[in-house]
Amino acid sequence: MYDPTVARLTYRALLGRRRALILGALPLLLIVISVVVRALTGADDQTAADVLGGFALATMVPIIGVIAGTGAIGPEIDDGSVVYLLSKPLKRPTIIVTKLIVAIAVTMVFSAVPTLVAGLILNGNGQQIAVAYTVAALVASIAYSALFLLLGTVSRHAVVFGLVYALVWEALFGSLVPGARTLSVQQWALAVAHRVAGGDLVTSDVGLTTGAVLLVLVTVLATWYAGQKLRSLTLAGEE
Amino acid sequence: MTTLRIDHVSRWFGNVVAVNDITMTIGPGVTGLLGPNGAGKSTLINMMGGFLAPSTGSVTLDDQPVWRNEQIYRHIGVVPEREAMYDFLTGREFVVANAELHGLGSKAAQKALATVEMEYAQDRKVATYSKGMRQRVKMASALVHEPSLLLLDEPFNGMDPRQRMQLMDLLRRMGDEGRTVLFSSHILEEVEQLARHIEVVVAGRHAASGDFRRIRRLMTDRPHRYLVRSSDDRALAAALIADPSTSGIEVDLAEGALRVQAVDFGRFTALLPRVARDHGIRLLTVSPSDESLESVFSYLVAA
């Protein structure tokens, strides 16, 4: 279910100069914000939770997920170079799972690691806040990567749809419409984080069981479906 | 023996029929898939390569289905028309990656790079390659596993004459080795130079199949044009027009030759030397002036 050559091609494409810059910009912004906030307000648990929850987990993680998840396959399908993978005796699910693993790794490196660093800067992991949000970022990375990899496989406008989902659904509706929160990767990840941190600083609208089950379900289903879609991916001619 | 069978294949996109009930068998040797732009060649090649499902009908390689059968790629090499090919890799890295995806090593890749004579530029980034160099590296990537069927979509596009000749030699060689090589083209000279056997597709339909000169000859209801030079053009013209196999003659003063239009191909070819001999006229040049694929084309399109 894993092909090292597909992995190499995928991460080299993902970490190409331009995309790497975009991937690096948001984490850098998070660190800068954390340094400024720490300097202005000192170490404060509530502030730390607000920054990590409001910016890191609600905005940065999904956007990195969109870039890595859709970027792991979308551009190849768009420009047609995916034909070099498809014209090989490789199981299609192997291609998808390999790309998923790369997307997850990239999302984790560019979102969970900076979240931990930012948390340490903000309040030195007081009340386990930094670790809790890092764990949330890690599990969210998995689900986002799977979702956006699927999106990249089925749609030519994956980045746009992905950003709309990440920014409008997760960030906006998630905070306004109670029902939408139940169907939000962010809330599921927060349920896991809540378990790690304890207390009231990290809360979620869903229970741990619901959150964990939905995370696994979404990841598995999205990956399976992406594999199916790739099996019957049509390369239309340019005529 | 590798035989690609296209059996009553149609493909439509919404209301547009791109390929309309085509049946053909492609065997060993070089076959040219010829047709004007938009005739459905790429759609057909995509179906042959398993990248597109036929709406109806089937495509099989030695009785194995091609669609949704990734194991078939052990036998198929594909050279797509599109340019994109992991530009951030060097040529060597690209071909090695393709070899690895086939479960082969860098040795196979090196051999393929040598076959297309790209070793001299193999360590440059693909992004810096000219169109012809890209085409050759694509070719190497399709050859790493020594496939018995090679599918090439417009392989000569953007190549300079020297590269074109090299690739033609290579394809000819592959055909002589007994591989099944199919390439598409809308350029008549390319097909004419490389493939004895052609399949003509016009407007999504299979218009003709076989040796192109034979196809041409089969169209007896179509006037054939000849350029004739002789020791006495006007006397020859007068003698020829008397026979019903000739429908028109023009004395081309600039060329210093006759342009003869024959209705009945078989009868005319027998008539011309006889008439010349009977009238004591020496024939200096007799050349079919439209035995090119262009004329086959325009005839088929009009039909």
UniProtKB/TrEMBL annotation, chain A:
The keyword Methyltransferase does not apply. It comes from the Bacteria. The chain crosses the membrane at residues 20-40, 52-74, 95-122, 128-151, 158-177, 206-226. Keywords: Membrane, Transmembrane, Transmembrane helix. The keyword Secreted does not apply. This is ABC transporter permease.
